[in-house]
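Problem 3 from the worked examples.
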Amino acid sequence: MREKIERKLFSGRDFYLEQLQNNLSLLKSGQHRNIALFGSKGCGKSFLIREFVRRIDDNAFAPVYIELNRLSLSPESFSIEIITNIFAWLFKKDYKWLSESISIEGLKAIKSSLGKNSSEIIDKVVNELEKIKPNQQLLIELGFNFAQAIAEENSKKLVLCIENFDKILELNGFEQVSDAFSAIKFQQRDVLFVTTSSAIWQFKPTVAKHNFEIIEIGNFSKDETKALVERVAGKVINTIVNEIYSLTLGHPAYTYYVASRLKEIVDVKKAFLIETLSGDGGIHRHCDSILQSALSRARGKTLLAVILNVLSHNEKLRLTEISKKIFRSAPVTKSLLSRLIEVDLISKSENLYSISDPVLRRFIAYQNSGITSEPDEVLLKKLEEEL
């Protein structure tokens, strides 16, 4: 069902798709570069990478699609799961098989289908897991080495697509893991890494050091916005598209939610407000998820929320202005602002700080103004006039 819906809605990403597909021919000659897709949550990275996987129809390639936030992020469990997922994709095993095979016994069971090198990797993983204190860094390394070994043995080029790749850094919290990223051999002849991440500030410098080609996924153009709106809501006039674009700035997720609401509410501004304010609104859920996820990764949540409240009611502010409004010294305020920049909630340009996502800024402003999650018609009319 998800695949059918996504294929119907896929639009506006042909340029990026072409970049990904061009790299496949380079993979055949071993001259490829790994690719890291970066973009804000909801910009369409997942749609793009899954469509890329669906369009790989050359038997020379074996696509593997892994959502890293669905894997167990302890080195021991991770090594089992990454190997089992790669095997399942290569040999077209279903989810039931996968869920029943994620164990040491499952690893042992697949050995009969493997060649010498990949079978030896299984033996090494099992050997480590049976120790009282396994080498956690080695387990991560072996898990990824399995990709090259099994690709070579099956005369395939493995296209290893990993969503939320920044989650790999969570393995660094374990005692024996000095640097999970350094455990991965990225320059593998038969493996192309295609990764996604929304942790732009924190993770982009990490992949840049490892010779990844970085592709930043931006918002839709106005024409691309129109294409998505019409796939969701049917034929619309340009005035409606212009209104949606002015409110969402072409952000794919926000555009989709407003277009979906248009099926029952023909007023664009009203549809946008209900999506943003109502607890069941897609924009509401999306913004709340961004906010909670980012704040959970940053220290000093209470004061950070205060700063976000201040910035939500002011498009741009200087450091001195913010420090006065939160009653803290400039050095303390600057430190807090740096934490918000690190989790991609705010940006700094020409010594002015602002919330990076204007829709998120409205969401925070509405929340902190005490606007109820189910606004009445009078309030909606007032807010429409302010948009």
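Problem 4, a separate protein:
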Amino acid sequence: MFGGISLIIASCVLFALLLLLLWVLHTGTKSARSLPPRKTRQRLSLAGLAFCSLSIASLLALCLSWFSPGVSQRLGDTSVRILSGVGFWSAIIGFIVGAVGIGRRRIAASGVSLLALGCWLFLSFSAAMSTSSTALARHPIKYLVPSGYVGWITILYGESGAPRLPLRGGNLICKIPNGALLRTSATVESGWAKDEFFYYSADGSLQPLRETTWGGGGQVWDGSVSTVMSDHSKPQRWEETYFIGSEDQFHHAGPQPLPGPTVK
């Protein structure tokens, strides 16, 4: 997945491409009455352009939703699946229909449809690899750990009566207390974002903690999120855990601590 300047560039390119397709489709529709023997294949070329325009428009809508995690979260998994399905199948139909058309518009319809199909496959693959869910953007989280702390940290979400996570500069702040257990009434957001970990000191200074693969000198390990289900099979409570320390300290650490009782 991508964000920042890459997201801006991608959105501008998709918007320009959509305008170009709509202009080609408009001019083609006006001239479709000529050359009667080839009218059917011309209409197929135009239909292919219409479908690939719909696919590009779906891609653009998805990119625009990533500019605001709040919008993306409100959009939800179901809406994104529908949007993805419309974009994906429009690209396939646009390629098939456009391929049996005629002229330059056939080439445009087939080429852009293949481009859109490649984009959808890339997004589907990267979203599955990174989040095991659809391509939603969420708020990035800053995890603040007491300076020098080594061991497991736990965040309990969905705790009734506990405070919500503060939002600062677009980041949710998880400030872990000295007891290494943070309770919050916030829910877990699904989707992708770049989270950060820091040691914090009493004077307010921050020291970055790195996440790496084995042997990379990282200090954040074994992140996981588990759920406690209600009688209606809906999550009531989420437990997120990480180990903070060196790789060697992680290998010699004990098991994850059991969460405390739910706050009422």
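Solution to problem 4. The chain has two domains: 5-131, 141-251. The mean pLDDT is 85.
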